[in-house]
Amino acid sequence: xxxxxxxxxxxxxxxxxxxxxxxxxxxxxxxxxxxxxxxxxxxxxxxxxxxxxxxxxxxxxxxxxxxxxxxxxxxxxxxx
Length: 80
Description:
Elements: H1 5-18, H2 38-52, H3 69-79
């Protein structure tokens, strides 16, 4: 599987925050699996801002749009 830069950065951030490598299953529900929680979401948004320049106000964070690695990558790409 060839990853683009955005996908690899998102997966790297997720792994740093959670200690989990989710690259093998991009459709894993991060919240249902207990990999990501509300605090982790805030940290994820901060890291996306730091590393990719993506501005996502927490008030606009819709959990259902960010609950899998694939959705996070798509969301980030749509904002770049």
